[in-house]
Amino acid sequence: MAKKGREKNTANKAKHSKLIAQKKNKVKSKDAERKARLKEILELAKAKKENNS
To answer: What is d(CA 15, CA 3) in angstroms, rounded to the nearest whole number?
Structure first.
């Protein structure tokens, strides 16, 4: 038989899901920024090497 009244734990689950999603998005964005920075460094190094040759 179903419980009467307010649903249990839905607010906590929603908050937890939101926080976990924030954490995952933060990790993804940091990873993307790092890759972009490394790509720029590699391009600069390649250009510098071509200029010296």
So the answer is: 22
